[in-house]
Amino acid sequence: MNTKKIVLLTIISAISFLTFAQQDNTLYFMNRIPQVNLANPANGYECKVNVYGILMPVFGQLPPPMSINLGHTGFSLKKAFKKGGILTVDADSSGPGNTINTSDSLVPDFDYLLKAMRPINYITGDIQIHLLGGGFKYEDWYFSVGLTEKINFSLGYPKDLFGLIWKGNAAYINEPARFSGLGLNFTHYREFLTGVQRKMNDKLKLGANVKWLFGKSNVYTRKSDIRLHTDPNTFDLQMISNLEINASLPEPIYIDYNNGNGIADSLSLNLWNRDSLAAGDSTSNISPSDILNSKYFLNRKNFGLGLDLGAIYEINDKFEVQASIIDIGFIRWKANTYTFKQNGNYTYTGVDFPPYLNKNNDIDSIIKAWGDSVYSNFMVTHNQKAYNSFLPTKIYIGGTYKYNDFVNFGLLTRTEIYQRSLHPSFTLSVNTNFYKWLSATFTYSMINRYWMNMGLGVAAKASFMQFYIITDNFFGIRPEASTGIPLPYSARNVNFRFGCNLIFGCPKQVTKSFL
After folding, report:
1. Quick one: how many helices (H) and strands (E) in the chain?
2. Of 63, 194, 266, 492, whose CB neighbour count within 10 A is largest?
3. Residues 378-422: pLDDT tens digits?
4. What is the DSSP string of 463-489?
5. CB atoms within 10 A of CB 105
6. pTM confidence score
7. Residues 423, 446: Cα–Cα separation, whole Å
8. Local structure of 432: helix, strand or coil
């Protein structure tokens, strides 16, 4: 198999196993658990007191309350590969090439891949660990607090990256290959939440959560504009690149400059121990435990604010509408901050070897001369100014129809605003409150342009303990046919939310209505 096929197979495999954006579609109508307030702060809770969190002794750790969301906007693993056949490689004017029989194997289906991808695709993830939280109800008011560790990440990759490797640059003579959107965004922060919900009258409920955010580390690709032009006559290659990357890191990085003019010549990502480095010992690395120490976790220099807003309105005895906007906010990064900028272009016309092929020049000098030429056109400047990053805002709009006192049907739209683009999803749900101790929600969703997302949420109460588990897509987690390994085989989104709540002062009777 030739080189470009090996490269592409490696990329696809890596993406496929990472294709696990925060979704809370199934959670949205589960009004029998306190966590519903995180998706719509207008939702209170029927019991007088509830507490949860991994910092609670024993009960809060069984299981540890957390949420894991992984998604991919590009393609699903199920269709990324097809049954192979007889392949001919390295065929040219000198001969017919070699044949490879792949009929007993799965091979990448590049026609599907290039058709399925958007111009810019994202692998996204969100991990939330609830350290401590709770709420209490007082007459028509409901108050809540929460302390949560959050990690968000996304990796953007352009469709043309696959197209260039697979088809070559000849396919991009009339239009440039565009690599805009290529970049990494990563944020680790701690969120302290205080919320309030009030029943304004028999029809309307309003709520808001105010969040104090304490950033721990961040990598933010603010600008990524990369293009490759192929001249239709000479086939010269012109690369145009305009990048800006912000970072706030656990420890300083070490940057060397070119002649002291502020242009970065090289940087060390190994995070050398400064004392050892000064002594000339470059073998003493800072270990992960040194980086992620109490100084890192207690860092309060990177401060931000967030806001959630929500409303619930009862139209009549049968219909109710809900709306919320979650994570309006930002973090101001000040600790160990770096901004790298690069803006340049370079035209490759080939290398004229004969002038160099003499006793005074060798191949190393040719490569070095070419590398110096490229470097001079793509120099990176650097500063250490503070900067802002913004939370990915989510907008929910939905409604329910009450079939009877124990069952209702829900419709929900969720739109995430990320990188100045909209990422919508849609959900149909059946919500049940059959017993005082048990409630369940079944959902069918379109997420990341994939329709077969079957979700389930279950909450069960035993005495003062309530256990819950929620997923937007249990149908996509099934064993892969050839290996039996559970994978997100047909899914573009995988998520789980689970935990334990301690609840007190609940109503004696079964809830008779969702409204």
Report:
1. 8, 28
2. 492
3. 677 888 899 999 998 999 999 999 998 889 999 999 998 877 778
4. TTEEEEEEES-STTEEE-TTT--EEES
5. 12
6. 0.79
7. 11
8. strand
